[in-house]
Each structure stands twice: as structure tokens, then as C-alpha cells.
Queue: 2 jobs
Job 1
Amino acid sequence: MIWYPYAQMKTMDEPIHITKAQGIYLYSHKNKYIDTTSSWWSVIHGYNNQEINQVIKEQVDEFSHVMLGGLTHKPALDLSHKLKSFLPGSLNHCFYSDSGSVGVEVALKMAIQYHFNQGKCKKKEIIALTHAYHGDTFKTMAVGDDPDYHLAFPDKEGVHHINPNVEELKMILEKHHETIACLIVEPLLQGAGGMRMYGVDFLESARALCDQYNILLIFDEVATGFGRTGHRFVSDLVCPDIVVLGKALTAGYIGHAVTLANDKVFDGFYSDKAEHAFMHGPTFMGNPLACRAALKSIEIFEREDYISKIKHIEKLLKDAFKDFNHDAIKEIRILGAYLCIEVYNKENLKGFKKYALDRGVHSRPFIDYMYAMFPYIIKDRELHLVIDVYKSWFKEVE
Ligand SMILES: Cc1ncc(COP(=O)(O)O)c(C=O)c1O
């Protein structure tokens, strides 16, 4: 039997059995639902995109996988070439892996070894943000800060957590900069750790402080990348030394991630010494099917001017919720194609999932948040339908 994620198997609701997925819709045996989750932020073009299907089929007929250990291939070369021009600054060096969590592990290892290669072996601690979520592997749990997820794994050795506040960052850097390797953040929008937002001014100051103290700045854009915040990447606003992309990278087709390092980081490994090499190599890194899906996804993203679509979704959401309030609601947050309604009491969301399903909307509230990360192809009338369901729920709360 399947052991489902993030669920108490004894009490979890019966999962919805999906038989077909098309565009923004999920189909069960009997019903059809608008999907507001984009399958954990990944399915940005909707399900069953014919263009992406086609390139994957073509690639299957050529070859589905060869390792990057000692071999290379056109899909990985093409994607690396594309990402080099698609990403800002000198984020030119692509290290592939099979999931966002591993992509973040790779980024942290790169940062620590970058200093190690320069003889700065003490620089191996990490600064991360309170309420951060970076994945479920051991080091990503350590840089994360959310007991709702990782209660049984409280080990935070070598990690300092701060709020996204410049004074806090300054204080910790003044005191500890000699032992700190990097600062890692989910830029602008913290997802799974509470759907929180903060301003770009913190990132700008963080960039300057990291330069001042020889600390690498890592953006985990696994969730925010590819337009989610209304920017192609937050890295377009403030350029990090290392950025991690995942989820929407392959449009929800195949699990894959890429950790892009800038020239400075890459040069820290490029030497005559074998021991300066980066020792990591996931079996499925640069999988050709994933690379073809990513290339086609980026082509569609650019061709269809998704940034304008996302700005339109943002405006529609902001207009729709401008005058909306309810005693149960703590805050409504909207950024790009992303909506979060935080309530004071999680009891106020009990029953919402079923309520939404009964009205043709698949939503996945968690703790005291109801949220939506819309596929970018959603139409206005479909957005209004979802908004009406979310709003009308609060009449039930009364
Ligand atoms: C910001 C962020 N980083 C990393 C991850 C982990 O990605 P994956 O689930 O592909 O391992 C997630 C997943 O939600 C995420 O939101």
C-alpha cells in the first residue's frame, strides 16, 4: 500500500483517485475539479500539455536516460546553455539533481566547500530564516524552521536562524562572520513554512552584507522561480551567488532540480587539485526527458508572455479581495499568481476542503492557511469561480 506524504495514515481522509488531468482540471471517476495547487507549485502550464508531451515522446524514442558521469548529451547541454542566458548575472554553471531538496543540499555543500577549497575550513555555518522551509532531507530540515513539519528532527547544529531583518543579519554577521559560509533564503515568499512575505529591501541589504563579509548568498527559488511572485525569478531583482530551481523547472512532468552557481563559486572549484572537485552525483542528474520538458516549458513561458498573464492574475486577485474581510481572517496575502488567506484559528478551516470539492475546486488548506498557486493558464471566469468558493466559505464560518 502507499504511505502518503504529510499524513497520519490512521486518520487521513481517503485520497481522491485521479483518472485524468487536463489543463487546470483534475478528474476523478465522477467529478471534475479546478486544481488550485498546481501539484505543489509545479504544473504551471496545466496538465497534459501537448507540446511537452510531444518532446518527451520524441526523447523516449531516442534514449530516456544516460548518466552524466563521463557522458553528456544534447538535452542537458541545450538546457544548460538556455539557463545560462535565461538567468541573470553570471549564474552560468548548472548542477542538476532530482528534487528540490537535493538541489538545496547541493547548494549548501557548494557554499561550504567553496570556503574549504580556499583554506577557510572554519567557514561552515549557515544563516537561514525563521519559518524557512527548504525540503525534507537532513540538512534542509536543519536550515528549515518549522516544527509542524520536523518535530522529531530538531537538530540545528551550525545553523543560525534570523528574521528577515537587516539589523538581525548585521548583528549575527558582526559576531560570527568568520565561521559563516552562507545565507540561504526563500526570496520574497516563504512557502510551506507559513506562506509569509517580506520586502526586497532585506535581500538588497543581505547582498551587500554578504559581499562585505565574504559570505555566499543562496536563493532557494524552488517554489518562487518561473514567475510565481510576478517576477521571472526573484534573482532578477537581487542576484545571488547560487540559486536553486525545481518544481516548475520541468512543469510538473518529471522531478528535477538545478543548482546554478555564479562564476565566482565555480572558480572556487576549478583548479589543478583533484580534491577541489565537487563530489556529488545523483544518478538521474540531467535526465534527458527532464531536460527536454524543461526546455519546452521555458520556450512556452517566454513565447506566451507568462509574466503578463501572472500580473493579470495578481491584479484580478487584488481587486477581488480589496474590500473582503471577515472576523476569522487574520491576513490576506497576494503576490503574483499566489493567494494566501490566513485565519486566526485553524478550526475555521475545518471542512473547507470538502466544501470546495463539492463546488468543483480542489484546494489543500493546511494549518491556518487556505491558499492557491494557480496554473498560469487559468482563465478569468475560472479564477472568479475559485474566488467565489473561497469567499463564500466564510459565510459558513459564521
Ligand atoms: C522552497 C522550497 N525548497 C525546497 C523544496 C523541496 O523540493 P522537493 O519537494 O522537490 O524536494 C520545496 C518544496 O516544497 C520548497 O518549497
Job 2
Amino acid sequence: MKLPKSGRDATEILDTLNALKTKDVDWKGGKCFAYVYDAGPEAMDLLKNSFNLFMTENGLDPSSFPSCLELERDVIAAALDLQEAPETAAGSFTSGGTESILLSVKTARDYYRSIRPEITSPEIILPETAHPAFYKAFKYFDIKPVQTKVDPTSYEAIPSEIEKAITENTIMIVASAPSYGMGIMDPIPAIAAIAKKHHLLCHVDSCVGGMYMPFAKKHGYEMYDFNLSVDGVTQLSMDFHKWGYAAKGASAILYKDSALRRHQIFAWSGWMGYTVVNPTVMSTKSGGPVAACWAILNHIGEEGYMDLVGKTQAASEKIRAAIKDIEGLRLLGNPKGNLFAFTAEDFDIFALSEAMKTYGWYIQPQFGFNTVPANIHLSVGASNAPHVDDLIHDLRKCVTDLRSNGTPPLMNELPAQLLEMFENAGPELFDLLGSTLGTDGSDLPDNMREINNLMNLMPSQYRDQLLVEYMNRLYVR
Ligand SMILES: Cc1ncc(COP(=O)(O)O)c(C=O)c1O
């Protein structure tokens, strides 16, 4: 578009915006098992109203907007309480899990620069299940990733593998509570003990579990301890905009010792303008996310979260039982919460996600990596719970259909000439694969089955190269 010469009518604009959403996944019907966290219409209205109330306030300057400061202090205090943090602890409100992780990694790097300046090439150890946000942080802040194997059956991180990977350049160990892919809790007490023994920082990534697992635990579900009370854990990320049901743009990075947070804060007065002091990545920031987060935490409250988690746990267990019962499907590992994944034993799993799409379901395909096969991930939320029987019915039907009708034959292995082509290709790789992919990259394909199959067989570095090129084309200019 170009800027219109004269401004358009507001109603017409809102109609156009609403019409744009019609092609999106239908999360309102409870059939989308990813991306959206919906605690019902009353909660949604409160989020919108509280967000709107603070949309224009600027969290950049707490002296001009003490309201934003107060809201943030409250939200962080609630998070610290939930994670059983000691009095010494502190945290920051951030825009999401990725920002919390970026800040934690930057803090670790700068803290080590101050205490161990001889480490010029810092390393962070993380299991194969840790979230890509860490690798993003490593790229931004020039840290070497040291990836360790997880157990090939349970997908839990292996403490002894982590200890073996420690070198004189290690600064931090990462563990997940739980990891996203298969929803698995790592043995955090054992990992944190290793970190403490070697005088290393230990980050628990509880982005997806921080507002869920404390309540699941109170419901009596057995799991490893994972919060800030665990000896050796030094920092923890948790998102409100997932199972806290807050508006998007709401997460926290928490440190057991507030002294560590100092390494996160940026201040600059050496220029010809106003002084900048930012605890987090953003400078100018809307007060909307923190206000909506404060509102939803107060609205739902402990009893409300217990109720939401109770319903979600029951729904998750029902789906897991069905997966174990449906011939041809296999649940991966032994997940405790509302995130889990399953694979297909004898048919194309990517055909299943496409088949379910035709019944209106969005379930998320994931590529295989090392010991985990290609699979489908489900994140079950409160809004999905009433639709679980329908989901199981359609899942059963689609699996039966696919197993009896078969799907078109697929490559089991990439042809050697294709691999050779990857090795020598740059951005033109996309063009080379254009006909196989059935897209020139400028649009979103309807059916992802073939593309997913091809990418599933690619080594991950080529997959990433291809996806970077795809994104670069998709956003056009
Ligand atoms: C375990 C974990 N860490 C980090 C993230 C990144 O969070 P965000 O998408 O809010 O940046 C996610 C997202 O699902 C996650 O599950």
C-alpha cells in the first residue's frame, strides 16, 4: 500500500482489519492447539480494556510514568512469589520469552566479563531440547553453544552429559521446565547442583511452564523441583502471555540475586540528547502489556489458575490416553503437563496435520532432530478442553483413513545430488528447490505436506538457510 492521499473513514478501516483475520487459524472455536491462550470472553474483555487504558503510557521513563513502574513491580513481585524466590531476588518485565532469554544470556556474558575477564570465548551448555531463543541470543551476543544429548526415550536432559561438556570457558547451563517440543521437564535439581559445584550460572527456562507447572504441582502431579528455591538455580524465565493468559508482550526474567540484574541494565548519557536508562531491550514501550498482565493476574487469581490448570490437565490426560490407544500413533516421552508430542509409526505424520486441518484443527508439525522423529505437538489450553472429545474423534478417523488409504510415496532419504547441491548453494537454494517446494517463496502454500517432508530430511543447517531465504521473500520488501 501507499499512504492514502486523504485519510479513510475509521469504520471502513476497522471492517478491513477484521476482514483480514478471516484467513487466520480459528482460535475462537477452541480448535487451535498452539499460539493463542484464551481464558474466555470475560478475561479477553478485561485484557482489551486494561491494555487500551495504558496503550499510550510510555514505560521508557518511570519518573514520568510511575504508574508503569508500579504495575511492573507488582507483576514481578507476584512472579517471584510464585517461583518461591528468596528475598534477595529481583526481575524485569519483558516483551516475551525470547527477550527474557536474550537478557539472561547477555547478563551471564557481562557478569563473567566482570569476574573472569580471561574468558574471551564464552560457552553456554544446553540440552538438545532447549528453545531456539538461546541460539538467537548466542548469535546476537557471540556465545558458543555447547549442545548436549538428551535421553533418547524420555527426552530428559542428562546431567552427566552436561557435566562432561563443562570447559574452562563455560559460563552458564540451561535447563527447561518444561521444554516446548515434547513438554518434558529436565532434572533441574541435579543440573543446578552441577552448575553450583562448578561455580556456573544456571538458567531455568520456564517460559511455557512458569504460569502452569506451579499449579499442576499443587494439583499433585509429580515432577522435578524447578523454581528459584532450587539450590544452584540462578535465573529463570517465565511468560505471562502463555498460561498466565495475559495479552501478548508479557514475560519476566528473574534472578535469585538482584546484583546479577545490574549486568542487564543499559544507561547512556554521552550524546546530545535525553539520557537513556533501559533495564530491558526496548526503550519506548507501551504500558499496555504490563497493565493487561497486572489485570489478568488479579482477575484470575490463584484459585482461578488452579481451576484452569485442573481442567487443562484433565483434557491433556484424555488426549494422551487416546494417543496411546490409537494404533499407529506413539506418544513421545512421559510429559507431565499440557504440552506433548506424538509420532506416527507407519504413515506420514505431516499428512495427519494436513488431514486434521480439513476438519478445522490446527495441530503443529515438528521436524525430526537427532533422536526424535518427525512429530506433531499439542499445547492444550483451557479453551481447547471442551473440544477434546471431538479432537480425539477426528484424530482417530484421520489416522484410520491415512493408514488404510495410504499417502503418496515419500523420500526416506535425500538424494546425494540434492545434498551436494545444498553444500554449494547460497540464497539461490530456494530457486533450485522451487519446483519441488511448489512455491517461489512469495506466498504461503496451502498444503505443507510435501514441503515438510523435504525439510524433515534436510540437515538442520540447510533447513535454516532455506527458511531464512523464504522469510526474506515472504515479507517481499
Ligand atoms: C520453553 C520456551 N522457551 C522460550 C520460548 C519463547 O517464547 P516467546 O515466543 O514468547 O518469545 C518458548 C515459546 O514457546 C518456549 O516454549
